[in-house]
Amino acid sequence: MRKFANAALAALALACASASSLPARAENTAVDLRILAINDFHGNLKPPPGGIRITDPNDASKRIAVPAGGSETMATLVKQLREGHKNTIFVAAGDLIGASPFLSAMFHDEPTIESLSMMGLAISSVGNHEFDEGKDELLRMQNGGCHPTENCRGPHPFEGAKFHYLAASTIDKATGKTVFPPYEIREFDGIPVAFIGLALKGTPQIISPAAASGLEFRDEAETVNALIPELKARGVEAIVVLIHEGGFPSGDYNECPGISGPIVDIVGKLDRAVDVVISGHTHQAYACNIDGRLVTSADKFGTLVTAIDVKLDPQSRDIVSAKANNVIVRTGAHPKDPEQTALISSYETVAAPIANRRAGTITETLSRAPNAAGESALGDVVADAQLAATSSEAKGGAVIAFTNPGGIRTDINKRDDGAVTYADVFASQPFRNQLVTLTLTGAQIKDMLEQQWLDPKRPRILPVSKGFRYSWDAAKPYGERVVAASMMLNGKPIEPAASYRVTVNNYLALGGDGFTVLKGGTNPQFGSYDDEALFAYFQASSPIAPPAADRIAQTN
Questions:
Q1: Rounded to whole angstroms, how far apart are CA atoms 264 and 1?
Q2: I need a labelling partner for 181 at 20 to 30 A (CA). Which of 66, 82, 449, 468 fits?
Q3: Domain-ending residue, one of 344, 367, 396
Q4: Is the pLDDT of residue 13 over 50?
Q5: Chosen domain end from 319, 344, 369
Q6: Is 353 within a domain?
Q7: Residue 362 carries which DSSP code?
Q8: Where residue 313 sits, what CATH number does that domain have?
Q9: Mean pLDDT across the stretch 295-307?
Q10: pLDDT (tens digit, 9 = 90+) per residue, 458-490?
Q11: In whole angstroms, what is the distance from residue 208 CA to residue 472 CA?
Q12: What are phi and psi of 239, to 5 degrees?
């Protein structure tokens, strides 16, 4: 950290994710602050399937799954982590809502906002998923009130978040101002600490074009650095950044032997006044030193809480040391918080009649994990469901369906009896995107498939419905990867000049995920929602088995 005045302390900062100490004089006068942090909760009020995967403590060559998560356990753990600490604050790095399981999503994530407010969450940056339903809906999450079209569906009035959203880099173009305040200053024993919150610059590329309309997402590091003089003028030296962007570590959940990804470059560009960075977005767990600063992330779905202990020097009013510990929210290891239990129960009572509707059965788990070519079992089933929903002439006359992999959020796991409920279906397709059937030429279909590699570091291979097959060549440059001669529909070649009715969701139809070719589709016909299509497909086609992975092939 920039504050350390000698080489010994500078060297000590390189181990900022482990225990640290200060000279005796500073130790006697330092103000202790414990920051508790989470990220990417995504409405997981109940423990997520699979918990968290960590290194086996008995065999470092293996990984094991530890049951973890759930707001009932997290609330208890947060209370325990506060105990014995005079100064504490609970913060988050975005994506608290959006892409949520049915229990939260059915009520537009009102239960999650209430749950985290009850836990004492104080501040959160916005993430990309906070904008899934648009700016106005996010403002409702902050301020409360009924949903504009579905009214009040919950067991009690929704009063809005008791915590404060921050959005330093998100600008409302109509006003030129940030959607939420850029930062918040809290005092601990008279020492001010600033928390700057912001989303990733690439948010417009991963939310719907409609949701991004009218908003500007500025560069992360430039945004933070521009605020430093203002904060210093207000007497602030201790600065913590809450950013919804992250990295990819190579170690266990409390380690960081190596990390790559956007967060590395961003932290390297930050003003030296920034002391601690709490990150998210990549659904990873780490406690790292990057450029001499502590950088943390708490996995996803509420499986971890990061406890960050910092020392504030009363003379410099700055952070002089920081260390972090990612604590697993171990299911069953702590008593359930009764307030959280009561909250969940109240919403379950309303949701149960819909959630428990039987969709059908599966013979094996339908996984969303792609193979080397980019094809997944659940992706195939979702695309087949969307084709089935729009194949009749009256409903669009579709012959092919594509869907976006980012819209498939979780596996459909096999129970002992193979039963699948509406809640299971909704969990895998939580965005409720409307299906749109368009007319595309064969050439447009190829051009659309080429856009799967628009971001070569993060290809987005579209799941495709049965009957359509193609191969792609990994050795070819961008724009030439799809083998045109391999594109077949029911055994017949796709003709460049011929027209085909193609179903996608409205997110893709508007050019979402960079598939701008789809904006050129003609004769759009709107249909049912994706979750409804998948539910109907289960009802009509059960039992469903994982399809053969033979629709997409990779060469080289």
A1: 16
A2: 82
A3: 344
A4: no
A5: 344
A6: no
A7: B
A8: 3.60.21.10
A9: 98
A10: 899 999 999 999 999 999 999 999 999 999 999
A11: 27
A12: -130, 130
Token digits for 9?
């302390």
Q: What is the pLDDT of residues 509-527, one digit of tens each?
A: 999 999 999 999 999 999 9
Number of separate domains in the chain: 2
Q: The CATH number of the domain where 476 resides is what?
A: 3.90.780.10
Cα–Cα dist 58/66, whole Å: 14
Q: How far apart are CA 143 and CA 199, in angstroms?
A: 20
Rounded Cα distance between 173 and 275, Å, is 31
Nearest-angstrom CA–CA distance, 98 and 226 = 30
Binning the chain into helix, strand and coil, the percentages to the nearest 5 are 30, 30, 40
8 Å CB contact between 323 and 288: no
Write the CB contacts of 185 (distance below 8 Å, at least 6 apart in sequence): 192, 193, 194, 195, 231, 234, 236
Q: Are 379 and 410 in contact (CB under 8 A)?
A: no
Distance CA 321, CA 396 (A): 62
Over the chain, what is the mean pLDDT? 94
Nearest to 42 by CA among 119, 99, 127, 123: 99
Residue 386: both structure tokens together: 């969307």
Rounded distance between C-alpha atoms, residue 361 and residue 542, angstroms: 5
- Give yes or no: residues 334 and 461 share one domain: no
Q: What gap in Å lies between CA 255 and CA 96, rounded to an integer?
A: 24
pTM: 0.86
What pLDDT, in 10s, does the model give residues 233-256? 999 999 999 999 999 999 999 999
Residue 96 forms part of a structural domain: yes
Sheet containing 434-441: give its strands across. Answer: 400-401, 499-505, 434-441, 522-529
472/470 Cα distance (integer angstroms): 7
Q: Which of 432, 453, 433, 430 is nearest to 368 (CA)?
A: 430
Give the domain extent around 60: 35-344
Per-residue model confidence as pLDDT tens digits over 408-427: 999 999 999 999 999 999 99
Task: Write the CA distances from 448 to 1, 208, 432, 490, integer angstroms.
Answer: 47, 17, 23, 20
Domain assignment present for residue 160? The answer is yes
Whether 336 maps to a domain, the answer reads yes
